[in-house]
Amino acid sequence: MMLFLMISTVLLTCLTLGLAVIVFALARQIGVLHERTAPIGQQPVLAGLQVGQALPRITARLLDDSPFPLGGMHTTGRSNVLMFISADCPVCKKTLPVVQALAVAHDIDLILIGEEDVPALRAMTARTHLEHTPLVTSQELLLLLQIGRLPTLVALDNRGVITARDVASTRAQVEAILGTLPVPVSSSFETKELLHDAV
Question: For the domain that residue 68 is a member of, what is the CATH number?
Answer without folding.
Answer: 3.40.30.10
